[in-house]
Each structure stands twice: as structure tokens, then as C-alpha cells.
Amino acid sequence: MEIIAYPQAREILLVRTEQILPPGGLYVPDLFAAIALRYEFQTAPQGNTSIDQLLDGAKFVTGKLELADRDEAPFEVPIQELTVYNNGLVAIAHKSEDAQAFLNDLFSWGELMFGLRPPIPSESWKNRLCASQIVVQFEQSVDDLLSKFQSITKLIEAQMRLLYPTIGSPLYLKNLTIDYDKATVPSNLDTLVGFFIERRVGVPFADNVIFSQAPLPTDQHSEYLTDLEILLRRP
User: Fold this and answer.
1) Is 78 within a domain?
2) How far apart are the first and last CA of the chain?
3) Which domain holds residue 67?
4) I need a surface site. Which of 19, 74, 192, 207 has the fewest CB within 10 A?
């Protein structure tokens, strides 16, 4: 399997703004202006945005985060979007680790500069959701996927139990998507995207270039695709 691209990874933090803002509040336009400046977002909320207006989301588009790699040399990570709602934040980057690093930096800096209160991490992922997209090239054709449906769902369920142990529902075939019955899962998980694989538009089918989306961080998503290709090789 060859990784071709990481189009998008989405980190969703479910937390009300009253839990992360200072108890005495703050002037939100100043916070948003500072976020836009620090991460060099090319589009940012304009005017006197209030907490009440966050129901529809305050969106920042096309920014970057400066990080240090293992050799302590700085490098820049593109941040596609940050959207702030009154009940959560959504960060979008190419890989989950980058979106996570951005949110960590946002709260570390925000605590120092504006008195923001970082959300308490949840080991059970009750306050976090994620999704990622990967474009890969398989050596094996995906034409036999349906004949291996039960084996594929076992691979998916093994990864999902690590992140969302309370999900409970089995997986079903849903069009070209393998998904949970959203009527039977906990309410905080009913917005999870399904698992789906489709041939990349505009690429010859014989090239076996696949677009995949999953409610997993990028690293676990890649592991799942590796296992999937191994499964496809089996008779």
C-alpha cells in the first residue's frame, strides 16, 4: 500500500465556551483577532462577534502552526480551518496529529494570554470525535470487498473499541458505507462519519487508487487500511 495524500483530518472537541473562557468572561473580538494573528489565518471572523453568535460557528480559514521536529528545527503545519461554536471546537488539518497539536497549542497559548481554561482530557473520548481521509494505492483490487464483509467489520470494530468503547452497536452495510445504526449509539457519537472507500475520481480503476474516510485518527486509519489490504490478498 502506498499513501498518496492526506486530504483532511478533523478533530472535534465537545465543550461549552463557558467551560473554557475565564469565569469573568472576556472581550471575544480581541481573542479572535489574536488567534487570527498568531496562526496567520487568511480568513477570520469580522466585527463584534459575541458568544451568542457562536451557535452558527465563528470560522478561521487557511492558517499555519509552527512546530519543532525531533531535531528541534522549526517547521510549519498547514491548518485548514478552525471553527468555534458555543458547544465545541472543530480543527481541520491534513493529519490528525497536526489538528491535535494545533488545539494543544491554542489552549496553552490562550491560557497564558487570555486566561482560557484548557478542557479536561477525556480518556474515554466522551468529549472528542475525529475523522480522517486518506488516499492510497493498493496492490490488490478492492473488487472482493463485499465477499469479505464480516472480516472487514471485525477490523473496523477492533479500531473503534479503542476510541469509543461505549458505542455498542454492530456495523451494517449502508450503501457503499459501513456504518453503525445511529439510532442505537450514545447521543454524543451519533454524528460520527461512517467508514467508506471509493475509487478516486478521474483515476483508471486498474490503478487501484482509493479514497477512504473513517472516524479514526490518521495513524489508526492508516493501520486499518494496511490490514484491509492484507485481508484482500487472502483467498
Assistant:
1) yes
2) 18
3) 8-114
4) 74
Q: Is residue 125 one of the residues assigned to a domain?
A: no
pLDDT (tens digit per residue) in 137-186: 988 877 777 777 788 888 888 888 888 887 777 776 554 677 878 788 77
- Indicate if 142 and 209 belong to the same structural domain: yes
How many other C-beta atoms can be found within 10 angstroms of the C-beta atom of residue 84?
Answer: 23
Q: Which of 114, 147, 165 is the last residue of a domain?
A: 114
Helix axes 28-38, 96-114, angle to 10 degrees: 130
Residue 26 grid coordinates: 472576556
Task: Judge whether 9 and 132 are in contact, CB under 8 Å.
Answer: yes
Please list the residues that pair with 76 across neighbouring strands: 66
The whole-angstrom separation of Cα 112 and Cα 234 is 54
> Which residue among 54, 86, 114 closes a domain?
114
Separation between Cα atoms, residue 95 and residue 102, nearest integer Å: 11
Distance CA 197, CA 213 (A): 7
Count of the separate structural domains present in the chain: 2
Q: What is the pLDDT of residues 68-122, one digit of tens each?
A: 764 555 688 999 999 999 888 999 999 999 999 999 999 999 999 999 998 876 5
Nearest to 212, CA basis, from 131, 158, 143: 131
Q: Please tell me the distance from the alpha carbon of residue 214 to that of residue 224, in angstroms, as a whole number.
A: 9
- One-letter amino acid at 101 equals A
Residues 107 and 19 in one domain: yes
